[in-house]
Design goal:
Length: about 325
């Protein structure tokens, strides 16, 4: 009887081959850190002989929220070969990964998918994210294309964001060198104090990550849009960018707090900077009556009034280079 387990380094090649076949792209090239020996302990799979026929991937990550660190698990590359579907492998591995992750101190899963598997698990769509078409008309700035030697500068700009993924230099350099952002070829352009990462989606130019000064970001986008002879560029951003949106939507995926204990331990300081101790205790008491799905909605999606106007929803960063 086939059953899920943690994959070993010798299983990595087969796991990448399965994911590449199912998602119809070179997943090893797209995710050089996620699908690697370094992360093999967080890849679950089902093997038939030496062949991986079902895969469930998680990559531990940290999000800085105004200086406080939230530990999350990024979930992706979840797939099963068509000949082995219907056995419930993915559901079993999701439960296994949840138990493993809670022991690792992870507070919530952020999942690159909205399929029924995740919704049955209790993951929800969340957040408020925007897109706007930026025209090439208007003030531009001098730009240069970024290469691996510029990773330090990009990270120094990224580091100034108040809400961001925490990135190690080595891991980010490996991801940057891959040339892929969100499974698409990407190019990053630098200004004096800002950067933008561009890709093409359905023959449209898009910016999936940016950092630095807002006005310079817009000038970079105009310059690159004109250089590429495009009529416009679609900028993806959250509320912190404060720009008129053409479209507002939720995060392109789902999320669920998997451990309220871990969550409150990691963000207690964040709340105590905004609430008195009495208010915080009252908030935790209300939150304790919610299940983890309801708590996720309340904290990240205003799914329930907890009597704390101005605190919620907490905004999480968009994926950008951290897409799994």
């Amino acid at each position: 009887m086939l059953k899920p387990g943690v994959l070993m380094p010798e299983d990595l090649k087969s796991a990448i081959e399965l994911a590449s076949e199912i998602f119809e792209k070179d997943m090893g090239a797209c995710f050089p850190v996620f699908l690697s020996e370094k992360n093999i302990g967080n890849l679950l799979g089902v093997k038939d002989g030496n062949r991986v026929v079902s895969l469930f991937g998680m990559q531990p990550a940290k999000i800085s929220i105004y200086g406080y660190t939230l530990k999350v698990g990024l979930i992706g590359s979840v797939c099963t070969h068509p000949d082995y579907r219907g056995a419930g492998f993915a559901s079993r591995m999701l439960e296994m990964m949840q138990a493993k992750s809670i022991k690792m101190g992870i507070s919530m899963f952020i999942i690159s998918g909205t399929r029924g598997l995740y919704k049955r698990f209790g993951a929800v769509e969340f957040g408020c994210y925007h897109t706007a078409k930026i025209l090439p008309d208007g003030e531009k700035t001098k730009v240069q294309k970024a290469y691996s030697k510029d990773v330090g500068k990009i990270l120094s700009i990224h580091q100034k964001k108040t809400v961001r993924y925490l990135r190690s230099y080595d891991s980010f350099k490996a991801i940057f060198k891959s040339g892929y952002i969100a499974c698409r070829p990407g190019e990053t352009y630098l200004g004096e104090e800002s950067y933008c990462t561009f890709t093409s989606i359905d023959n449209e130019l898009h910016v999936l990550e940016y950092g630095g000064n807002k006005s310079e970001v817009l000038r970079i986008i105009r310059a690159v849009t004109a250089e590429k002879n495009k009529n416009y560029c679609v900028l993806h951003y959250d509320n912190s960018f404060d720009y008129p949106a053409d479209k507002t939507t939720t995060f392109e995926g789902t999320a669920k707090i998997i451990s309220s204990e871990n969550f409150f331990s990691q963000l207690e300081g964040f709340f105590l900077e905004r609430l008195s101790e009495r208010e915080y205790k009252e908030f935790k008491n209300k939150a304790s009556k919610l299940d983890n799905t309801e708590l996720t909605k309340a904290v990240f999606n205003e799914g329930m009034d907890l009597g704390l106007e101005g605190i919620f929803p907490i905004t999480l960063p968009d994926y950008g280079w951290d897409y799994i």
